[in-house]
Structure formats: structure tokens, C-alpha cells
Amino acid sequence: MAEQYKIIAEQDNSTVVARYETSKRKGDCYQSEAELERWLIDQLQLQGYEYPRIRNEQELLENLRVQLGKANDTVYSDAEWKKILKEIAGDTLTMEDKAAMIQRANTAVVIERDNGINANVHLVHKDNIFKNRLQVINQYVPEGGTHSNRYDVTILVNGLPLVHIELKKRGVSIREAFNQINRYARDSFWAGEGMFNYIQLFIISNGTYTKYYSNTTRYAREKEAADQKGKKVKTQSNSFEFTSYWSDAENNLVCDLEDFTKTFLTQRTLLNILTKYCVFNVEQELLVMRPYQIAATERILLRIKTALNHRWQGTKKAGGYIWHTTGSGKTLTSFKTAQLASKIDGIYKVVFIVDRQDLDYQTMKEYDRFCPNCANGNTNSTILLGQLRKEKESKIIITTIQKMASLLRKKK
Q: 309 to each of 12, 172, 304, 347, how far by Cα in Å?
């Protein structure tokens, strides 16, 4: 049995590497924050990132205009650029609005070009991630904030700042880097045209330990709760606990900045995480998947594609199983798997089967929280049959094993 599934764990093109051997380095090696930053910039250039000199908002916006033009195979005039800025910048757009623009299926904004024709301006290419251009900048100084700041390292995708990296020297707690980002959020991310509110992912590192998390995690979110007397009070969650370590597919942690950069920050991996493995839910929270969730999703998708290519449908070779523990985010994994599987050529329907009625309701509720109306439930086998028969509707169906068994007894 183990040999049969070996091929799945050894794919070189997986977002999460099958197995990573950590780099050998001296245990007593000291690196200052400046040395870590310099090494990171050099390494990212070796990995194909462009390194422009951008230190302020004017230079950032000039570069954004050029990069969006390249991403859309055109050059924008001054009038067209003003229209684009009106759509993607300004005080009316919140951080959540900008996250939605990046995470929605169609990331394009529409402008009227000088010739009078409406045209799409794609901020990020999701169908072909290699059409996106990656740049790295450092020591950016925002203008107009409540306090002066200088950002360590930022990764631009088509000119937009989508990933920010905060560094501390070896020996300093990475929680200090997390707190630093919180200060930036209060002081200056929103300053000027608010372009740094487009950031989707944060990375914090002291060289020895490196973690990542989504943009909505940076706030200790206030939630309403009832005290013993029934009055509503404000409580704060410890959002640092939602930061994640990266790992390989065998769950070996990839903590050191050098190892993290050579895996997580490869262009293909980073773009996959930004475009495929983030979920912006109805509560306007951006969720980024953990490495074991991504690995599980990709293994299932690979098994589906392999089964289609070899015509294994209906045989045991076409199947497999993923084992996750309680509280590991199985529903999010299944949602993302179902969403991506439904887009594979040759897939007619994706049916998610649970073993009892309360799980049926719970799964539907969770799927609706991730993406409203993305899946279809059913109350009996007759409705299930109708959903299966509709070719262009009900691409993702959630049902119970009892309803499916009843349907199969009726319809051989």
C-alpha cells in the first residue's frame, strides 16, 4: 500500500516540498538585523526577484504604474493611470476592501481607456501565476503617518506590496517583530495612498525562527462577549498564537530564515500561497493555510488528476485518504480541495459526504462562511439526484452517506 502512494509524496512541483534537508551552518553564527536583511535581499535576487531602488511613495507608485502595465501588456497614459489609482487607492478603501480585491476570483478593475473602450486592469494573475512579476524592496520610508517608520523588507507583486518581512537580529524574540508590525499598522500602513494595506502576508524572523501569518491576524481583534451580568464587553484575542511555522510534507519544521527563504519564498510557492491557498471569508478575515493543509490539498488534487489521466475512475487506485487530527482545520482543507477540484477539466461534480446529519449542517455552515453559496446541501435523496443531474449547477454538493446510499438503492 505504501509503495502505491509513493508517487504523490515525491512531486518536485508541489507547493510544500516533499522533504527538505536543512542547510549546514555554524551554531555560533551571529547575524545582526542589517546582515540578515542584506543576505535576504541577495538570496531573493538569486531566486529571480528584481531589486529596484524604491524608498518612498512616489517611487512606489511610479513603479506600480510600470509593473501593472507590464502585467497587462500595455502602457498606461497619465489620464488612464489616474483612473486606475482612483479604483485601487484612496481613503474610501479599507484594508478589508483591498484584501477582497486580491482574493476574489477576478482581481481586475475596469477603466475606460483613452480610446473610449473599457479594459480590465489585472492586479494579480491567478490562472497563470508566472505572468506575475516579483520585486523586493527594503528600507521603505512611509510618508504621512503618525510616527516615522522605516520598513525592513517588502515583496511587490506587479508593483503592489503584498508581503512584508520584519527582521530582528539572532537572539531577539520574534514576538518583537510581530509587535513592530502592529505598530506599523497603527502608525503608517494606511498613510498616503494606503498601498501597504494591500499586504496579504506577514513574515517575522530573527534568523533562527521564522513564522508567517495573514494581514488580519496582525490585529488583536476586539470581539463582543457577555459578562456574568449579561452586559456586552470587549475582549481581545492573542493573535500571535495564529502565526504559523513552515514545514516540509513530512512535518519537519523549516524555521531558519535561510531554509524558509529557499522554500516558502521561491516564486512559485509564494505565488501559489497568495493566489490559491488563502481564503477571505464572510467575516472579512483572511485565512492563510498551514503547510500540512496545503500538502493535503495538493496530494488529493494530484490523485484526482492522475486517476483521470490513467482512467482509474471506479478503481481503488483512484482513491486515497488524508488523516488530520481534531482541530487541525480539516473543513478548510476540504473546502479548498473541493473548490480547486471543481475547476479541473474532466470533473463533473465534487461530492462531499459526511457520516451524520449534524456534520452535514455544520459543513454547509462552514463552507458558507468561507464562500457564500459555493456549495449545495440537500434534505433528501430526490433533491440529491436533481443536483447530480444538473450539469452546470451544483458543482460542489454536500450530503450524508445515508442519502447517497438511499439514492444508489433507487438508481442502480
A: 19, 51, 9, 12
What is the spatial distance between Cα 61 and Cα 198, in angstroms, rounded to a whole number? 13
**Residue 81, all three cell numbers:** 493611470
Give the C-alpha separation, 115 to 394, whole Å.
Answer: 41
Handedness of CA 134, 139, 144, 149 (dihedral sign): positive
Alpha carbon of 300 to those of 213, 304, 309: distances in Å? 24, 6, 14
pLDDT range class, residue 218, cuts 50, 70, 90: low
Which of the 8 DSSP states describes residue 24? P
Q: What is the pLDDT of residues 394-405, one digit of tens each?
A: 899 999 999 999
Q: What are phi and psi of 259, to 5 degrees?
A: -65, -40
Question: Which residues are CB-contacts of 322 (< 8 A; sequence separation ≥ 6)?
Answer: 296, 299, 300, 333
Give the pTM. 0.87
Which helix (H) or strand (E) element contains residue 67? helix 57-71
What DSSP state is assigned to residue 244? Answer: B
Residue-range domains of the chain with CATH: 33-288 (3.90.1570.50), 291-410 (3.40.50.300)
69's grid cell: 502595465
In Å, what is the CA distance from 296 to each residue of 8, 59, 279, 403?
A: 10, 41, 16, 27
Q: Could you list the beta-strand ranges (E) of 40-90.
A: none
Strand pairing category for 151-157 and 118-122: unpaired
Q: 139 pLDDT exceeds 60? A: yes
pLDDT of 8: 35
**Across 168-216, where does the E strand assignment appear?**
201-205, 210-214
Q: What is the DSSP string of 349-407?
A: -EEEEESSHHHHHHHHHHHHHHSTTSSB--SSHHHHHHHHH-SSS-SEEEEEHHHHHHH
Tell me the pLDDT tens digit for each residue of 219-269: 544 444 444 444 444 444 448 888 999 999 888 999 999 999 999 999 999
Q: What is the pLDDT of residues 143-171, one digit of tens each?
A: 887 888 999 999 999 999 999 999 999 98
